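Each field is listed here:
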Amino acid sequence: LLEAMTVLQGVTKLRRNVAITKRVNMGWRPPRSLFYEGKNLPTLEMGYPMLHTNYDILNRRSSGFRKYMPPNAPRPPVVRDADAYAPHGEDGKIPIAELLGKFRFMVPGYFVQNGELAEMEAFTTAIDLHLVGWMKVRKTFMSGHMQGDWTALSYFQRWLTEKHLSREAGTIRAVEIYEVNTGLMHPLVYTSLMTVKDNRKYGKRKNQLLKTLERAQISALESQTALERRRREEFTEEHCV
């Protein structure tokens, strides 16, 4: 029994010594020694790293922080006198087709099939007039930005204001034309005509639909409350002295 107790005490002491022994953590960096020479980083002069590269004429750099800016291209003269233009360039005047312009439009209304038919008709009209830009057609509005020659812009603006949209596509309630500008220069900002599609995910569409239904329900309840209040007031005036 005495020998067993002695062996047990020895094992316990051995375990205790193993537990308090410091172990080397390989996840830490080794401590710096006298042989540490520092990181190899290039020196900077005027913001440029001084690397050991061979000489080449392409390796030139400007002194200081100056950057080369090309000179501005001269702008072509734009004649803004209305008498200097003619429909087809008669009497040596400038053809009106060379006068470029732009405008933006907002058309509230109701367009069936989420505006697909109205989008097709408006896009066909604009592409036939060789206009560039973009348009966005939804169920309750139509908006866009058009650029091109002024004759084509006038025709498209007239197509909107006179409401040439077919009844199958929907109805136009009003037309707002703004940011009208003439005298643009080549090249135009847009090079083609495109339509902005509804690429929202199902979750966002569902949330938007729920918000629309909530607003419609709230407006219906408010109108019903106003009618009920009016009915009670009329009843009170008729039957109360």
